[in-house]
Amino acid sequence: MKSKYRLVILNDTTFGEKLSLRLSPIGILTGMLAITILMTTLVISLVAFTSLREYIPGYGSISERKQILALTMKTDSIEQSLEERELYINNVLHVLQDSLEKRSERPKKDTSGKYKNVDVDPGISDKQFREEYEQNKSSVASFTNPKLKGLSELVFFAPVKGLVISSYNIKEEHYGVDIVTKVDEKVKNVLDGTVVFTGFSAQDGYVIHIQHSNNLTSIFKHNSELLKKTGDRLSAGDVVAVVGNTGDRSKGPHLHFELWYNGIPIDPQDCITF
User: Fold this and answer.
1) What is the CATH number of domain 124-270?
2) pTM of the predicted model over 0.70
């Protein structure tokens, strides 16, 4: 590669020497590389710093790119407005035609056996509580609200232990409390009573109603599974359901719990500590 060679250009008629160059292979390669780098730099500079780039497909002026972006945003806005308008028109047509909304599809019965082996027997702490309650039944009172005459001698069993995320608010027609707890937590009966209703609704999911003494009713909503049926006689602390996320009103796994006294909803937090 370092050997020296001479390139001589001669006149074809007189054989006179016109040009003579002393070259080597490595020199030729170096020269070609330098020319390539120079040409590449020149082309890139012309494209980047001159208006020639506008003639290359895919490139354009900054103003054109801004216009394209603005048109894209307007198109998205128009598309969204059309979807909202179409939804509004469809709703108006449903009202004019007296069309009814489709009911939510009822979840299929669980056949996986997930809740087959749920332990519904009272635990050690539950048994101790019941024994203490029976021994001191005449002297124990869970609350002393004067507006709730007839309930002062009752001791309520907490249906679940968890965090109350939505409290009782009669102005907002929220007649109970929403309690977040562990996934698949067992729901327990609050007082001795009888199951008067079990069923499913599109809004509240799986629901169970239990009638207690003193014209008191407890309601459990949004369960994933009901473990008791209508007519079952229950004791305080018996497992009646499993916490779930069924029904259109449910936004996540939780228990919605209500207490009704003489046909009027009362605040469960006046009676129970969750």
Assistant:
1) 2.70.70.10
2) no
